[in-house]
Amino acid sequence: MxxxxxxxxxxxxxxxxxxxxxxxxxALPGVDDAGVxxxxxxxxxxxxxxxxxxxxxxxxxxxxxxxVVRAQTEQAAADALAQVDELLKKRRSNVxxxxxPRSLAAAAGQLPESAITLISVPGRYAAAxxxxxxxxxxxxxxxxxxxSLDDEIALKTKAAEKSLLVMGPDCGTAxxxxxxxxxxxxxxxxxxxxxxxxxxxxxAVTAGIHNLGGGVSQAFGTGGRDLKTEINxxxxxxxxxxxxxxxxTKVVVLVSKPPAAAVATRLLAAAQACGKPVVVQFIGxxxxxxxxxxxxxxxxxxxxxxxxxxxxxxxxxxxxxxxLRGFLRGLFSxxxxxxxxxxxxxxxxxxxxxNTPIQPEQELADVYNSTGHTIIDLGEDDFTQGRLHPMLDxxxxxxxxxxxxxxxxxxxxxxxxxxxxxAHPDPASELAPAIAAGGKARRDxxxxxxxxxxxxxxxxxxxxxxxxxxxxxxxxRTTAExxxxxxQRLAATPxxxxxxxxxxxxxxxxAAINVGxxxxxxxxxxxxAAAVHVDWRPPAxxxxxxxxxxxxxxxxx
Amino acid sequence: xxIDIEKANQTTVERMMNARPILKxxxxxxxxxxxxQPNLLLHAxxxxxxxxxxxxxxxxxxxxxxxxxxxxxEKQAVGMVEAGEINFEPCHHHQAVGPMAGVTSxxxxxxxxxxxxxxxxxxxxxNEGYGKVLRYGAYSEEVLAKLRWMxxxxxxxxxxxxxxxxxxxxxxxxxxxxxxxxxxxxxxKAGSILYTAKLAPLLAKASKSNDLLSETLKFLGENALSVxxxxxxxxxxxxxxxxxxxxxxxxxxxARNGTDFGLRVSGLGDQWFTAPAxxxxxxxxxxxxxxxxxPDIGDSTITETAGIGAFAMAAAPAIVxxxxxxxxxxxxxxxxxxxxxxxxxxxxTIPQLDFRGTPTxxxxxxxxxxxxxxxxxxxxxxxxxxxxxxGAGLVRPPxxxxxxxxxxxxxxxxx
Lengths: 557, 415
Description:
The structure holds two protein chains of two kinds. Chain A contains 19 helices and 22 strands. By secondary structure, chain A is of the alpha/beta class. Chain A folds into three domains: about 1-90, Gyrase A, domain 2 (2-Layer Sandwich); about 105-315, Rossmann fold (3-Layer(aba) Sandwich), CATH 3.40.50.261; about 325-490, Succinyl-CoA synthetase domains (Rossmann fold). Chain A is elongated and about 115 Å long. By secondary structure, chain B is α+β, with helices and mostly antiparallel strands. Chain B has two domains: about 5-10 and about 20-230, CATH 3.90.1710.10; about 245-410, CATH 3.90.1700.10. Chain B is about 35% helix and about 20% strand. Chain B has 13 helices and 16 strands. The interface between A and B is large, with 37 and 46 residues.
């Protein structure tokens, strides 16, 4: 049993504060009792009555704050005294007030539970405000437009490091835990989560879901440029990951205007791996099929809503077969078939290379050597000079097939077999043995044949198919079916999630800071969300010179 | 030069808050204030010469010359000044502060405070109370008689009383008065009563005359500004403790001389940044309007500099009329000041804000960034010498002095 004393000279606190501190100290582990008083003679007597008057206390003056703890061990007493400042601070909670703060920092102090900051200030100031919000640990809903691509990259990089979400710039709408941000429709809660790089796309889908009797768990906007190459779906991937972990979300809808092919592949790979059915609507972007594993491609925004509602009512998640390792090698004799296959596959198999590329970056450097996913049109001039067209002569294709089989990176060989008048009289008789031999040599390789023909064709459709199947090839009659199958078998590896965003932030009742359009604040409070509106002005009154000086004075070490 | 502004500012405010000014003595200015001369008058605010001085300051200068016996009438006083026989320097250049005109001369009795944490001292003259007073530029015989009584009768008694004690802890007194409805600048009612209560037993013991004791207690007890001058000196001692920290953007002086508003910054040495002072926005006594008001005057803005005054407005609901009305406005005034300050005071707390520390240490960067200047609570002087106080209200320093300081800071530190 020992007493430990601290005297704070000339420190005045009201007795109510002192009593609170005293109670806080006495409740600490190993502390039997505590006395906290202004060291007036009367108070010293009081301490004496409770065996709290330490010899050191005598040195204290009436203007001094005197703290005495009685504890079981020296350590417990020292630990308790070390907590005095913390306990004093604890008392200073935030007082609710009608004050409109001028700075984001003050707003965050006023509404510490705020998880998200809505920013709708003029574009040239928006990035700086968004940086401040991220620095304060806020998710950002960035309505402002005219934010540069470089600023967007910087913001999303910082957000990823901090496990925060930047919705935008130019993000018109979102629905977070039932509260609409920006322009959002009033929709019922439900099991469908939405990630949209398009504001009105998000509105159309969420409204559609509601009108069909469904409901929305969360709807995240990403900003219109998120699926461009430079941003690489930074926000969409984070949002998808949040929805994948959200127990309230059973079905996910992805909406965007046509994305960059590589970004689409990246995002769809993550969607395929998210463990929930995902409805995809990349407005006008060619889908690889109606359904690829757990991905459902819709033909319109409304169909996306319909599919999502149907899936939510009957949530069967198909477990896709483990995908193949290795790359696609498509050896085509028909140019249009090659083109159609590429169009369908680029969403999931980018980068995709070809001697007949659809987009310049798909150009195969050396047409005689495949790299990564490759689709070759062997009917092109490079190959047909001085020899017959591959629809007539299989020699070139057989040699290229052998070359692919020797490449350890090849994983799936796709061949078209075009029947009909004028074509080779029995292509399967030459292709099938090569397939069979290849299958034996390379058990890790699959063969897919796309057979185009009719039952009246001279080669005999059924016989051709049977030869190919017997050799071990999977045969399809349409490009779409072949594409759908290939796409599923060669699903890209999902991109690694750097730092997952805390789901809990979106599960708590929404509290938000609004900077910019006051109508967004009114809308938040009308919906019952806790909100603080920042009385924002351009920094330094918009004086560029002073703003520049301030920026330099902030980056001092 | 590599500087860490955040760290420097933290150092500044910690020094300001850890400073513990104790009222140690009352003495003649010439005996204690460094550099004082018979022909030197100290005044409020940044440096100024006679031609640009406003009415109240001119009146106070004339009064001080009469009090000192250097001139026998107004005409002679003005003649001496115009002949260049009298020197003027800011109180702030002599570790001193004075309310309104702030004129302090060699024979005046002054409070001497010592910051026992860092050892620096600060001085302020004695408060004259209300009505016709020198600090508002009055110099009638009645005014001079009161000053003589203060300097020759009450002053020596105060000196003896305080000398018999261990001093009065003004920081602790302020901590308490902020919980009793004071904000430390425009309202010092509770503080003055606490101050009188602390002095009373000392005075009683020191006094050889019951009449003088009675007059002194009445003078101190009835004047709700009795403690203002020791409070200002205490704030000066705190601000000075934070002055001169390399790389700090915290304001360590705000002061007005009735013509200019002056600013000094911890990391910018003794350079003043000045711009014309504004007329306060306030409430006027019956018969007066803003047309009668002198531009802002006095060193009392040292209170806001140290984290009280208008910064602690939330603590003083009794004077919310100055901020247009409701207790919520008073709370908002303080909340606004948190946005431009570095710290929450570790000793001055506000019950109305659940005992949050007062906003302390104005950062010129935040002022510029948010376009938000400090609030100042102030008395309003009549523009003519000797009329006195005509109202009280709110004023803000001109933004220009903060902009100039920011530019100078960037130049000095090559940013």
